[in-house]
Amino acid sequence: MSSEKNILLKIETLKEKIREHNYRYYVLDEPIISDEQYDKLFAELITLEKENPKLITADSPTQKVGGQPLDKFKKYRHREMMLGLQNVYNTDELSEFYLRWQNTVGSDFNVIGEPKFDGLAVELVYEEGVLVMAATRGDGETGEEVTQNVKTIRSVPLKLRGHFPKLLEARGEIILMKDDFKKLNADRAGNGEPLFANPRNAAAGSIRQLDPCIAARRKLDLFCHSRGKIEGTKITSQSELLQAFREWGLRTNPLARKLKTTSEIQSYFEEIEQKRESLPYEIDGVVLKVDSFRHQEELGTVARSPRWAVAYKFKAHEGITELLDIAFSVGRTGVITPVAMLKPVVVGGVEVRRAGLHNEDQLKALDLRIGDTVVVKRAGDVIPEVQSVIVQKRTGREKTVQFPRNCPVCDGKVVREPGEAAHRCINMACPAQIVKSLKHFASKRAMNIEGLGERWIEIFTQNHLIQHFSDIYDLDAKRLLKLERQGETSTEKLLAAIERSKQTTLDRFIYALGVPFVGERTAELLARHFGSLEKFLNASEEELRHAEEVGAKVAASIRQFTSNKKNLKEIDLLLQKGIQLETGEPKSPQTLKGKTFVITGTLPTLSRDQAES
């Protein structure tokens, strides 16, 4: 045997040994050699490959150490939608979900329970057993390609084991173990760098580094739990999928369990909650999935969530702190929302300085006063809220809070309509509303002006380039290029996106106008009912209430909007500047009326939004 063949055989033997030890360590949790012995094998392979660079292959374990830095992340469109989960927080909500499952698939079904990681969702794409792509979830349809960074994660195999499928899209959660998180923050503190708030932020920040060597140093981990598209093997259930993942060398959580009844689910939930603090990673609940894929297909999806799975969340973390002040923010539709300004407090691993207060009624219900000692919770472990006041700690120096009668931004009139909890600034020219309204108008599901995000809207409004929707269509290259950091290419792209947006549908246009209480679904039903913009604008409250799902409150809001001369003038200007609306009544016979369609995956000629329209 030649010397080169000897070296090749030695390299292949070392690669197989290292893959086997990775599998035993990460998947089976049964290592048979020490870390020192593993490091020696790895060092030997690195040396041989350095001496024989022609023998290095893409699936070698040494290729996990990080490649060249990227200029930017590429977009990646998922073959099948990466859906989010609906949440439940108590046994009553769980029972409702379970009953819906039972009513659809019958009583003979199983549920798989798994810990819900507090990490970053990703998709791994394996072709012929080799990792060719890794991407973040993004908006569910399109994420960012982070392949180089994911390759640095030791628990992610570059090559699958055993009888793997031709194509596998494995979905999972990238996390940072608690101890590794503490060490990372200690190192950052020593270097004078800002600390990460929690392990999830650290994991997300690490995986989005353009330099994969940074990700490689941060000891990220990954657990697989779901699937996208699979070709070349037949798997019929979640339990089979998890078993197959393990056989192929992908790490899954050993705490996953098959359950049958709501009492079994509740016991499992309580067991995992008790183990929460002792686990080496952060979790914020359990995920429950109907086991059978056939049952999952029967249950389908709603909006962007599956009907066959739910997140059962733990009780929110709580903290106690002092209320320093109450600020009032103004939203897109003029709603004024109180915001609690707090003495910083760590709640569930996150420093909280602000917390939401819904409206004046909540302020009164809590009897909230500046200087109070308050209990703060993170609703669903995410959004901070003031839960209650510890009245016993009052000193008498606390100050009562008055809800503003004039807008805190423009000093315009504030009204509270009968039957509503919200106060609104009714000045459409209010600066606080303008930026948020313009952002909504340009958003993907409204006029879909790609590239016109909040940052540019703020710059354009500050430079007095746009103040109203119609001003967007007056933008030109000459004025845009005068702005700092605005280049020719980005200007051309933005102007092209603005031009494309002129061709739209009636329902998107109605939604883009930002009428209070009119969301996507209502806009679609209104467009279908009236068939033209003219009929919609001239409809009386009574006529509006004849539209499907439009009640008295929504009809009154629409009529108030369409009776406003400034609003009608703005709509007229938009039409004058080239907005063209696809309208028309549904054609007869209406063979699809009353049916529900769920669109997933990629379509050859349309986006999902276009197909749904």
Element layout with pairings:
Elements: H1 3-27, H2 35-51, E1 75-77, E2 87-88, H3 91-105, E3 111-117, E4 120-127, E5 130-136, E6 142-144, H4 147-151, E7 167-176, H5 178-190, H6 199-207, H7 212-217, E8 220-231, H8 238-248, E9 257-259, H9 262-275, E10 283-290, H10 293-299, E11 301-302, E12 305-306, E13 309-313, E14 318-330, E15 335-347, E16 350-356, H11 360-366, E17 369-370, E18 373-379, E19 383-389, E20 399-400, E21 414-415, E22 423-425, H12 431-442, H13 454-462, H14 477-480, H15 488-500, E23 503-505, H16 506-512, H17 520-530, H18 533-538, H19 541-545, H20 552-562, H21 565-576, E24 580-582, H22 608-612
Parallel strand pairs: 2-13, 23-24
Antiparallel strand pairs: 1-6, 3-9, 3-10, 4-5, 4-7, 7-8, 10-13, 11-12, 14-15, 14-18, 15-16, 15-22, 17-20, 18-19, 21-22
What does this structure look like?
37% of the residues lie in helices and 22% in strands. The chain has 22 helices and 24 strands. Strands 14, 15, 16, 18, 19, 21 and 22 form a 7-stranded antiparallel beta sheet that branches. The longest helix has 25 residues, at 3-27. It is globular, with a radius of gyration of 28 Å.
